[in-house]
Amino acid sequence: MLRYVRSQKLKQNTMNIHKTYYHRRLPHWHPENAIFHVVFRLSGSLPVRIIQELQDKRDIYYDKIKKVTDPSQRKKIIKDFQFNYFNKYDSILNSNSTGPAWLKNDSIASVVKHVLHKHDNKEYILWAYTIMSNHVHAILEFVHKEPFYPTEFQSIYFYNAKFTPLSNVLRLIKGYTARIGNEILKRKGSFWQHESYDHVIRDEDEFENSIWYVLNNPVSAGIVNSWKDYKWNYAKREFFDDA
After folding, report:
1. Could you tell me the sign of the dihedral formed by the alpha carbons of 115, 120, 125, 128, in that order?
2. At residue 34, what are phi and psi to the nearest 5 degrees?
3. The CATH number of 2-45+99-242 is which of 3.30.70.1290, 1.20.1250.20, 2.40.240.20, 3.90.226.10?
């Protein structure tokens, strides 16, 4: 039953005409009842050179996609780009070759874990996460709730949204964990990178693959041999019951 209900929601996301957007540097699609794969990382965890390289590849992709008129070809190019872009991004983070690794500190990782669970079944449904040394993967499902009314600091696009937008949820998570993390480290300054990666999960297969990707991230990084051995892994029990 769980699988059926989730599949229906995912199907609605791809067909729903009501699309909600938020902006930082780039526009993001935030459909109602969306399930996101989110990655947020520590400030300075990627070298400026690597960030520029990724941005250059993205610009080339945008130029390429503008010239494609065939829908099926366009879809394939987008899918290939997203796959390659994300793998490059995540593999660099997993290598942890430069930048801080503050999440190796169990006290800080515990704070991140606590905050992720604190908002479960309130702001979102927390399906899975893994806390790595310099970044966090999470699968979050956004559900209908009371109407959201923006303040002067929040996007007008969410005036009629019946969920807390992803940007606000990340602000909640990152704001508190940054403050406590800096207190633990006895430091000041940016803790998390402002920009986060997010991707809307569009179907049941992608949902399952995304959760397994998150759980196996420590395995891919060479930290453990099995996802079950990593203490900062989590997946909702219903996922395994329904698999």
Report:
1. positive
2. -75, 150
3. 3.30.70.1290
| Other Cβ atoms within 10 Å of 65 Cβ, number | 13
Domain boundaries of the chain, sorted by first residue: 2-45+99-242, 47-95
Give the residue from 207, 240, 208, 236 showing the smallest Cα distance to 34.
207
User: Using an 8 Å Cβ cutoff, are 134 and 99 in contact?
Assistant: yes
pTM: 0.75
| Residue pLDDT, tens place only, 180-226 | 999 999 999 999 998 888 888 988 999 999 999 999 999 999 999 99
pLDDT tens profile 137-190: 999 998 765 554 555 544 444 444 466 788 899 999 999 999 999 999 999 999
